[in-house]
Amino acid sequence: MATTPARSLRDAGQDWLLSCTDQPTRAHRAWSADRLAPFGTGAHWRAVEAPLLTTLHAMRRIGAARLGPVLADVEIERAWWLVNPQLDDELDDVRQLTVRPAGWVLACPPVLRQMAGRTWLERPDGTGKLTDPVLLGAAFGPGGPRLPTEAPA
Fold first, then answer.
1. What is the pTM assigned to this prediction?
2. Which is more confidently placed, 148 or 33?
C-alpha cells in the first residue's frame, strides 16, 4: 500500500510529538476518546502564548519555511508557538507574548485533526524544527506587530 504525503506527514509529525512525552500511550488514549492530550513543556520545547489574530500576521511575516509548530485554540483566540527549550530572555520585552515555564502543560490534539477547538496552524513535521525566538520576537515587535498602514481616504 502506497504512503500518501498527508499520511507520512501525520506519522512523522505525530511520532515527533509523541516523542515529546514520557506517556505516549496516555496521549493515544486521550485522542481515541476525543480528548486533548497533555504535553509538558521544557524537555523538548517551550510554549510561547500569543493572541490568535496577531499570530496569523506573525506567521506570514516569518514565512512558512522558517516556522516551527504553532497550535491554536479558536474558541479562546490563543495560540502557542513551540520554541527551543533553552529559551532565555529573548522574548521578555515583547508584551504580546507569554513565555510559559518549563513544566507547564499544553493540551494538544493529534497532528492532523482538530479537537476541542484546537488545531495546528503549522504542524509538527517530524524534524523537530522549532520557531526561532529571535524571528518570533521580531514578528511581534516590542510594541506589537507592525501592520501595514491604511492609505489615506
1. 0.86
2. 33
